[in-house]
Specification:
8 helices, 16 strands, 2 domains
């Protein structure tokens, strides 16, 4: 947040995506914390992976995106997040999605439930009893029409074709994994993503969505899986749904 308030240094990675000094500082903070909390669990983190550094992984590992939505960070619109996910047997079982500029935090807690809390960015941790957790069930408000979320920085023609099949519903435009929080809150129903993403972009939001009654499916109707070392942890196209029942119904209709 100190970098955000100042003038970030920006470089381009090999894939031409931007990276700032905030990405690196955030990753250092998260990796240090995970090394204390669960030192025996390997961590796949975006900026380390960009440098070619990925540890050997088994059935359990962390995925970390220290700054999801770097383009939004540089636009100073607040739509950037820090994503931390724990994967077990190719599925995300814990997720934390934190938007520090908005003081907005989404996470899963014991029992496989999803919650939201207000969390101020600080150099010292907020005591757990002081946090007020609001449960998230994905239940939409009465009378709201089917609503889609589309990426602010990565529009694709395939997305428009998919939404046409759903009747061209009203849509929200948003950056970063905040989209999954909106789905888990019940404020939107579907988020199609046909452009390339990496596992660390999605896993935390996926865990949150699962815990709120939703799901993420590939375009052939299969659950999105993690630990895809052969593809450098790249995801295929997918659709995120507020409701797993809605996803099943749409896939059944074709």
């Amino acid at each position: 947040m100190e970098v955000y308030a100042g003038t970030p240094n920006v470089l381009l990675k090999a894939d031409r995506s931007p990276v700032t000094d905030a990405d690196h500082v955030s990753e250092e903070i998260v990796l240090e914390a995970l090394s204390r909390l669960m030192p025996d669990v390997p961590v796949i983190a975006e900026e380390q992976a960009a440098r070619g550094t990925t540890p050997a992984i088994g059935s359990e590992f962390f995925l970390v995106d220290p700054l999801d939505g770097t383009k939004e960070f540089l636009k100073a619109n607040g739509e950037f997040t820090i994503n931390v996910a724990l994967v077990q047997n190719e599925a995300p079982v814990f997720g934390a999605v934190y938007a520090p500029e908005k003081c907005d935090c989404y996470l899963t807690l014991q029992g496989g439930r999803a919650f939201r809390c207000r969390l101020l960015p600080s150099k010292s941790a907020t005591p757990y009893p002081m946090l007020e957790f609001t449960p998230l069930t994905g239940k939409p408000p009465a009378g709201r029409p089917l609503t889609a979320i589309v990426s602010r920085s990565h529009p694709r023609p395939e997305t428009l074709k998919f939404l046409e099949k759903l009747g061209d519903p009203p849509r929200m435009t948003m950056g970063s994994s905040l989209k999954f929080g909106v789905l888990a809150r019940g404020d939107a129903d579907v988020y199609p993503r046909f452009g390339p993403t990496s596992e660390w972009d999605i896993a935390a939001g996926h865990a949150l969505l699962n815990a709120a009654g939703g799901c993420i499916l590939t375009t052939d109707g299969r659950p999105l899986r993690y630990g895809k070392k052969a593809t450098n942890f790249t995801n295929p196209a997918f659709v995120a749904w507020r409701s797993a029942l809605d996803a099943a119904a749409v896939h059944f209709r074709g």
